[in-house]
Specification:
heterodimer; A: 96 residues; mainly alpha; 3 helices; 77% helix; 0% strand; elongated; B: 145 residues; two-stranded antiparallel sheet; globular; transmembrane helix (chain A); ion transport (chain A); cell membrane (chain A); antiport (chain A); transmembrane (chain A)
């Protein structure tokens, strides 16, 4: 019974991630693409956690943490690029 | 973009980045020591540490990071290569093939009986090399000037 629910959830997640992928390719503005990429990261985390329930293993927990950290840092970098036009500043108080 | 003397409000990002930096560092140390029997190891631990340093670079700037953590990343790469080379070379003095690793059981305080491997020293070399190379690349091509 639980297996059927997990398979259905996986199928719905794949459909949702296809929708997000469409938004990444099509998205009118860059902000749409950034938010869609972040949501794809969250979808990947859910897929991995569902797979670790399905395969009955704890080996994928590091993958979940790693994906969360990388999605967060990527979103922060994109947001800083959108807001300030540069990602790594040399001296934030005296720059232009 | 010209934002000279503009008071940019980064308080939330900077406060969160300092806390998340330590969380990521602890996770990378966990990955580094988990590498023998489960997923992890020096490479991915080094990448996570570099990710934490990049988060500080994003929230502050490269001058602040150079003040807080005054590492020369090129020398760190060289040190890691020397550590990895010496650890892999030691086995040929005992008539074993190159890169053979040795281990034994020890009674450690607090941890009880554990096995200590020389592979952890090799992994430490890999860890230092990965941090050094990643941070050198990011600081070279990421900085705008």
């Amino acid at each position: 019974m639980l297996n059927i629910i997990i398979y259905v959830a996986l199928a719905i997640l794949v459909l949702a991630m296809l929708g997000m992928l469409y938004r990444v390719v099509k998205g009118p503005t860059t902000a749409d693409r950034v938010i869609a990429l972040d949501s794809i990261g969250i979808g990947l985390i859910s897929v991995v956690s569902l797979l670790s329930i399905l395969l009955d293993t704890t080996m994928f927990f590091e993958v979940i943490l790693l994906l969360g950290i990388l999605a967060f840092i990527g979103t922060v970098a994109f947001s800083k690029f959108l807001e300030k036009g540069e990602i790594i500043q040399h001296d934030r108080n005296n720059d232009l | 973009m010209n934002r000279k003397n503009d008071q940019v409000n980064d308080v939330i990002l900077q406060t969160a980045a300092v806390i998340i930096f330590f969380i990521i560092i602890v996770f990378s140390i966990n990955l580094f020591f988990a590498g023998h029997y489960s997923p992890g190891g020096g490479f991915i631990g080094g990448l996570m540490t570099a990710a934490a340093l990049v988060l500080l670079l994003l929230a502050f700037d490269s001058k602040t990071l150079a003040n807080v953590l005054p590492f020369d990343y090129r020398k760190m790469t060289a040190l890691g290569l020397v550590i990895a080379m010496l650890t892999s070379l030691h086995s040929i003095f005992w008539d074993r093939p190159f890169l053979t690793h040795a281990y034994d059981k020890f009674d450690l305080p607090l941890l009880g009986e554990q096995t200590l491997h020389t592979a952890i020293a090799f992994d430490l070399g890999v860890y230092l090399v990965v941090i050094g190379v990643t941070m050198t690349i990011i600081q070279t091509i990421g900085e705008s000037e």
